[in-house]
Amino acid sequence: MQNPDELSEMGARRPTVTTISRRAGVAASTVSRALKGDPRIAKKTRAEILEIAKEVGYMPYASARAMVTGQSGLIGFVTGGTDNPFYSEMLEVLVSRAGRRRRRVMVLHAGTEPLEESTVETLVQYQMDGCIITSAELSSRAADICHRFRVPVVMMNRVPLIHSSAVSCNNYGGSELLIELLLAAGHKKIAIVGGTQNTSTSLDRQRGAADALARRGLEPVVQVDGQSNYMGGLKATALIIAESHRPDAIYAVNDIMAMGVVDALGAHGIRVPDDVSVIGFDDIRSASWPRYSLTTVAQPIDAMVDRSLDLLEARIAENETPAEAIHIAGKLRLRRSCRLPDDLVSFQQFV
Amino acid sequence: MQNPDELSEMGARRPTVTTISRRAGVAASTVSRALKGDPRIAKKTRAEILEIAKEVGYMPYASARAMVTGQSGLIGFVTGGTDNPFYSEMLEVLVSRAGRRRRRVMVLHAGTEPLEESTVETLVQYQMDGCIITSAELSSRAADICHRFRVPVVMMNRVPLIHSSAVSCNNYGGSELLIELLLAAGHKKIAIVGGTQNTSTSLDRQRGAADALARRGLEPVVQVDGQSNYMGGLKATALIIAESHRPDAIYAVNDIMAMGVVDALGAHGIRVPDDVSVIGFDDIRSASWPRYSLTTVAQPIDAMVDRSLDLLEARIAENETPAEAIHIAGKLRLRRSCRLPDDLVSFQQFV
DNA sequence: TTGAAAGCGATACCAA
DNA sequence: TTGGTATCGCTTTCAA
CATH 3.40.50.2300 in chain B, residues? Predict the structure, then answer.
């Protein structure tokens, strides 16, 4: 590593390829090639250059590189304001998995409204190699800008747009499975606490549940909006109780609402699962807390993130990759928040 | 906005200052000045240029700008892997507040170990305008690199390093206040659930509590390590119960642990606050859930983030700004998890 | 296997 | 008030 004196001597600029090329007595282009492992460079030359680079503590300027290659190494993560911890967990995974591919993550926050102009502009200005969107809405105008400026888009747990790919958990199927579990356990009066009504995730889960019930000639005893957050789950349950629907099981389409359901029931002295079974979806961290111990379907976050990055990289490498939609099956997590069927065997394959 | 044909005609490159300068019949430098509102440019010229820029959908290349100005518009957020939602909430605020200042946030995840080399290198490579660090440890080597390469650093809720500034909540004082509240309510047997032992935040809170007790000639009936997470709070409480310390109040130095404390007590049939008062620190979102309704000290996240950005900007503008340490007082949130003193008036000023 | 030179886009300086 | 030009650091032709 270069010593401080030498650095300040250079007017506070860090070493560049030129610094190295001069020391090594070669051309800058040779340094560039050696550094990126171009096979044409002689072994010996390469070794020398690497040695010097290390010595002076060389670190490339990302901006210079981006300018000439057109790639920034940046992935945008666009997320709506939400208090669902699922998205924080996803971000954490994304940062880590993207890092392995030498990509960095920039967080772009879109409000609850459709994506603001400025967010999309940032994607373009920073020449993001791609972006992953989980916010509720991407206006067609925003999508259009991404497409025109060749910013690959992957929608996560959202409906794919014309030119974007999409990765999601098998929300419909996971939901069916959960309902079948409840039915197998003998439940007949099932209430559903729905999520934000304009997201495909919630809608798919609700449809999956409704269809699974319909197949047995049943329907939910009631369906209430839980707004995809804890307080919503709480209020929805209060409503269900107030209106005396008396369900024997409640399916909240995500865990954070399910936690609200459990707490609301507890506050009314209703025991879980003795009096009412509760199930959720996502398997967020707190779902496994003993207090809640939620039976739920775990979204395969790691796989979802990896596949998203794969899709982005395919698009980066070759612009005309066709849009794809990938569904990944979640895993059943059997916990104590619901009564278990006698015949558990048939569910073991989903665990 | 430019039509698609025109764009593809240009070989998929977006309009640049040159595109505009040609259309306007002026020099590129004039366009640059007009765009950034340089007062020397004639009103009319400027209007024309702005018009054209809008027409062609001009968006500057961040990389080109970074290269010449040396500023990227990027702020790094370095965070340790943690399941404390406080940091997610902080990130959310940061993204939003930084956005107002036209700065973007890049998330750099350092594991629980000391900051990896690669994280710091990213800061330098992308010429970050500054970074905010909340992870437990910044190795002196990493700090050195930041300093040498002129990346301003603000430590959030962490001990400032030699060349870094720091912003934190008044952890010590807030802790004193909470203990005084407990004492005023008549509690005498107070147990403390401590956090990660190598963070100044936890240590300060523990010291504040110990000192406040000592002032009345008391000391904690027991102090247990809760590892700053929910399960830790749960286990710590189980231990306190198992060892029959019989406290009449438990102070967990952060909310996520306090939630574990409440749940563990509940699981043992101990009522909160009737049998035992519980208090936390942070005021994370879930602290206000009716189920927990935690009395706590709210960290002033908005102010902390704003002041951090101020400090960074001061350093960006003028490199030799001296390091500063800022403590911002938190606000007391009185909720139902603890017995309240008869004399509430003296605490009203902190609410 | 290596070198020289051009060029990416925006800005800043020096002239005019 | 504006134009011309050099420059930031890196990569990529094209030559040698």
Answer: 70-169+301-330, 171-298+332-350
What is the identity of the amino acid at B27? A
CATH classification for the domain delimited by A4-60, as one of 3.30.460.10, 3.30.750.24, 1.10.260.40, 1.10.3720.10? 1.10.260.40
Contacts of B285 in chain A (CB under 8 A): 83
Cα maximum dimension of chain B: 85
Number of residues in chain A:
351
Instruction: Provide the pairing of β-strand A296-298 with A331-333.
Output: antiparallel
**B25 CA from D3 C1′ (Å):** 11
Q: How many CB atoms are closer than 10 A to CB A55?
A: 13
Model pTM?
0.94
CATH code of domain B171-298+332-350: 3.40.50.2300
Of the options 3.40.50.2300, 3.40.50.11540, 3.40.50.1970, 3.40.50.12500, the CATH number for the domain spanning A70-169+301-330? 3.40.50.2300
- Which nt is closest to the CA of A19, judged by C1'? D9
CB B105 within 8 A of CB B73: no
The Cβ of residue A118 has, within 10 Å, a number of other Cβ atoms equal to 12
- Strand nucleotide closest to residue B40 (CA to C1'): D1
Distance CA A172, CA A163 (A): 23
Work out how many CB contacts closer than 8 A connect A with B.
Answer: 115
pLDDT digit string (tens) for chain A, length 351 residues? 333 334 444 445 799 999 999 999 999 999 999 999 999 999 999 999 999 999 999 999 999 999 999 999 999 999 887 789 999 999 999 999 999 999 999 999 877 666 777 889 999 999 999 999 987 666 777 778 888 898 999 999 988 888 889 999 999 999 999 999 999 999 999 999 999 888 899 999 999 999 999 999 999 999 999 999 999 999 999 999 999 999 999 999 999 999 999 999 999 999 999 999 999 999 999 999 999 999 999 999 999 999 999 999 999 888 777 889 999 999 999 999 999 998 888 888 888
Residue A301, C-beta contacts closer than 8 angstroms, at least 6 positions apart: A89, A90, A93
Taking CA–CA distances from B231, the nearest residue in chain A reads A289
Can you tell me which residue has the tokens 């909540």? B169
